[in-house]
Amino acid sequence: MIGITTFGFVVIATCAAILGYALARATSSRSGRPYWAVSAAVIGLGVLALAVYVANPGEVKPDGALHEPFFALAPLGYLMMFVGAAAVLVWLGRRLGHRLTTAV
After folding, report:
1. CA distance 90 to 21
2. How far apart are alpha carbons 73 and 79 in whole angstroms?
3. Angle between helices 33-55 and 4-28 (to 10 degrees)
């Protein structure tokens, strides 16, 4: 049977491949649609990183040491969700600013 950690890493690797594809499409296209795909992929990777972190809880060893095998995924997940959301807000701000300057 496949463990949750193996499943988690397969899902993250798959999403990383999708993110790479979306980045390649975004750099080759001038429309705004691939930009949304990249932002959504980054946010999705952040959610998946947090899901893998939550699915694999830490444990306290008999000597009292805390062992969290996927601790790095927690700040990475939050960072990726923040970067994806910030990219969307920057894009919306630029579009709104462009509309305001052309309307005058």
Report:
1. 22
2. 10
3. 170
- The CA distance from 59 to 3, in Å, is 17
Neighbours of 52 (CB within 10 A): 20
DSSP structure class, residue 59: E
Is pTM beyond 0.85? Reply is no
The region that residue 3 occupies, defined by phi over 0 for left and psi between -120 and 50 for alpha, beta otherwise, is beta
Question: pLDDT tens digit string along 55-103?
Answer: 888 888 899 888 888 888 888 889 988 888 888 888 778 778 767 677 5
Contact 25, 37 (CB under 8 A): yes
- CA dihedral (79, 56, 4, 63) in degrees, to 10, reads 140
Selected residue with higher pLDDT from 23 and 17? 17
Compute the C-alpha angle 63/69/71, nearest 5°. Answer: 110
